[in-house]
Design a protein that fits this description.
The chain has 362 residues and is α/β, with parallel strands linked by helices. Helices cover 49% and strands 14% of the residues. The chain is built from 13 helices and ten strands. The strands form two sheets. The protein has an eight-stranded mixed beta sheet with strand order 5-6-4-7-3-8-9-10, with helices on both faces. A two-stranded antiparallel sheet has the order 1-2. A hairpin with a 2-residue loop joins strand 5 (184-188) and strand 6 (191-194). The longest helix has 62 residues, at 2-63. The relative contact order is 0.12.
C-alpha cells in the first residue's frame, strides 16, 4: 500500500507542476504579444515618418543632382581648340603646316631680324625669345621665332613635341629646305616657330666643309622678309658656326645679361666677335638693346651690376628689367609663354613692357 500511495503523490505533484507550467507559458505568451504589438506600433510610426520625409529628400536630391556633370559642363567652356593639355598640365601644340596658318590681319612693313645672343649659358636667351615673341604676337604683330639652339629649349618651351617634328632648322641649313616647309604656324597668337631638334647638334661639323657656310641662315631667313614684322633667332650658348650664322643673318642684336659678375666677362668676348663679323660679313650689324635679366633688387650685387652695365652701354640698355621669378622658370615646363601661364604676374608685365619698348625703338 505504501508503494501505491507514493505513486499517487508523485502523480499529483506532476499534475500540479504541469498546471503551473501551463500558467507560466500563458503569461509569457501574453507578454510576447504585448511586445509584438508595441514593436509593430513603433514600426508603423517609423514608416509614417519616413513617408512624410521622403518628398523633402527627393527635392534635395533633384536640386543637387549629379554635381559632377555640372563640373564637366563648366570644363567644356574652358577648352581651347588651339592646343591640348596632357595629364601633367603640359600644353601640347599641334603641328600644322604653313598652309594652315591663320590669315594676317594687317599689312606687314619692313621685317626686322634680331638675334638674341650671349655665348654664356643660363642668362635668359630662350626665356626672352619665347616671352618677347609671344608678347609682340599678342600686340598684333606677326613674329617668326627661329630656334637655333640644338638643345631645342625654345621649341619645347612653346609646347611642341620634338619627337613629332619631321623637319627642323637643320634641314634649312644643310639641305636648303625652304622655311615654309618647316615653320609650325600659330604656336601662339601671331607667333610662328622654326623648330630645332637634336639633329642640329651635328650641323657645325657638317657646315665646316660647305661653301658660304656663314650665309646659310641668312639665305633661309631672308626669303621670309615682308611676311613678318619681327624675326627672332634664339642662339646657342657658344661662338661657333651656328652663332656666326645668326650674326650674319641679323640686322640687330639683343644681348641678355644676367645681373651677376661672370655675365660681364662673357659680354666682352661677344662684342669682339660682333666687331669681326661686322667688319667682314655684315656691315649693318649693330646692338638693338641690352637686356638685364634675373634681377633681384634685394641684393647689392644685382644693383651694382645693373649700374655698371648702364654706365658702359648707356641708352642701349632697355629701361625694362626682367625680374627673377619662380613663374618665369615654371612656364616652359607647361609649354606656355609667361603671358599665358601667369598673365598678371611680374614676369608677364615685364615682358609686355619690353615688347612695347621694342616697338618704340622701331
Amino acid at each position: 500500500m505504501g508503494f501505491f500511495d507514493g505513486l499517487r503523490r508523485n502523480k499529483k505533484a506532476a499534475a500540479t507542476v504541469s498546471e503551473e507550467s501551463k500558467k507560466e507559458a500563458e503569461k509569457s505568451d501574453s507578454k510576447d504579444v504585448s511586445v509584438d504589438d508595441s514593436s509593430t506600433e513603433k514600426k508603423e510610426a517609423q514608416a509614417d515618418t519616413e513617408q512624410k520625409t521622403e518628398p523633402a529628400g527627393e527635392e534635395s536630391n533633384s536640386e543637387g543632382e549629379n554635381p559632377e556633370e555640372e563640373d564637366s559642363e563648366e570644363g567644356v567652356d574652358d577648352y581651347d581648340p588651339a592646343y591640348e593639355v596632357d595629364e601633367s598640365g603640359f600644353k601640347v601644340t599641334p603641328i600644322k603646316s604653313y598652309s594652315e596658318k591663320k590669315p594676317v590681319q594687317h599689312v606687314v612693313g619692313s621685317t626686322k631680324i634680331i638675334s638674341i645672343i650671349n655665348q654664356k649659358g643660363g642668362v635668359g636667351k630662350s626665356t626672352t625669345a619665347i616671352n618677347l615673341s609671344a608678347a609682340l604676337g599678342e600686340m598684333g604683330k606677326q613674329v617668326l621665332l627661329v630656334d637655333l639652339d640644338p638643345q631645342g629649349n625654345t621649341t619645347s618651351g612653346l609646347g611642341v613635341d620634338k619627337s613629332q617634328v619631321t623637319q627642323c632648322v637643320y634641314n634649312a641649313l644643310l639641305e636648303g629646305v625652304p622655311l615654309e616647309e618647316i615653320i609650325i604656324p600659330d604656336v601662339c597668337d601671331g607667333l610662328d616657330l622654326v623648330p630645332a631638334t637634336i639633329n642640329l647638334a651635328g650641323a657645325e661639323v657638317e657646315l665646316v666643309s660647305e661653301m658660304a657656310r656663314e650665309n646659310r641662315l641668312k639665305d633661309a631667313v631672308g626669303a621670309m622678309r615682308g611676311k613678318y614684322d619681327y624675326i627672332f633667332v634664339d642662339c646657342p650658348p657658344s661662338l661657333g658656326l651656328l652663332t656666326v650664322n645668326a650674326l650674319v643673318a641679323a640686322d640687330k642684336l639683343i644681348i641678355p645679361i644676367q645681373t651677376e659678375f661672370y655675365a660681364l666677362e662673357g659680354v666682352t668676348k661677344l662684342l669682339e666677335s660682333m666687331k669681326r663679323v661686322k667688319s667682314r660679313l655684315n656691315s649693318q650689324l649693330d646692338i638693338f638693346g641690352i637686356l638685364l635679366t634675373m634681377y633681384d633688387g634685394r641684393t647689392t650685387l644685382s644693383r651694382q651690376v645693373a649700374a655698371e652695365v648702364r654706365n658702359y652701354f648707356g641708352a642701349k640698355v632697355f629701361e625694362t628689367i626682367i625680374p627673377r621669378t619662380v613663374k618665369l622658370s615654371e612656364s616652359p615646363s607647361y609649354g606656355m609663354p609667361i603671358t599665358q601661364y601667369d598673365p598678371t604676374g611680374k614676369g608677364a608685365i615685364a615682358y609686355t613692357n619690353l615688347a612695347k619698348e621694342v616697338i618704340e625703338r622701331g
